[in-house]
From TrEMBL:
It comes from Desmophyllum pertusum. The gene is TMEM66_2. Belongs to the SARAF family. It is found in: Endoplasmic reticulum membrane. Keywords: Calcium, Calcium transport, Endoplasmic reticulum, Ion transport, Membrane, Signal, Transmembrane, Transmembrane helix, Transport. It comes from the Eukaryota. This is Store-operated calcium entry-associated regulatory factor.
Amino acid sequence: MTSIIHSGTLWTFILFGSVFIAAAEVDDVEVSVIEDEVEGDSFQPDGWGSNDKIRLTDVIVVTLHPGKMTNSRRTHPVPQLKCVGGMTDCSAFTPSVVHCLNIGSDGSDVQWECPTYMNNRYKFGEIAVNCEGYDYPDDPYVLEGSCWLEYTIDFVDHGGHYYITRNFGSWLGSMFRIIALVGSIIMFGIIALVAYYIYLHLTEHSGSWLDIMFDIIASVPSYINRLLKCDPSQQYV
């Protein structure tokens, strides 16, 4: 009886030992599969996604906002938009958003163009887009959201599109003011001539006021015609 119990206990240990060994082998297989996937060609970094880095030359556009800070990994966060001077004070204008476009490379650095909606009196002077290298300062991979723009603000020069537009609008407004002034002078001149003509009729003719007014109205066109011809030999009637 005792031998039977010992035999059953032995088989129980053997059974549970086999189960544990099988489970350990499965875990080893799963770990090795995961490691192979990470090290193999099937693993692709997400760039701006979970891997938090991307090759700087692959960045197409960077959108920057005032008051927002950059992401950081090796350094401290900095403002996404940073004015560093120029022809005017930085408080003269603050862009609401700036989209910096990657327009190529000069062989060593990425070249950027940063258009924005700006008051027509100002423009960006010098611009510099900076991003935090992922592992070291000159790393070709940069951290997601770590880019910022340093810029200066200058006045638009004489050859600038905005200056031409503003100058043309000012010139057009001046022309309208001159035309309005000339028109007013002509109108006052006509009124003065009519008043003078009425005065002549009142001093040279007698009769009722109604007859004099009808006579004046009827003779105004001929009087203006004679005046425009500048013929002093003709007498007023």
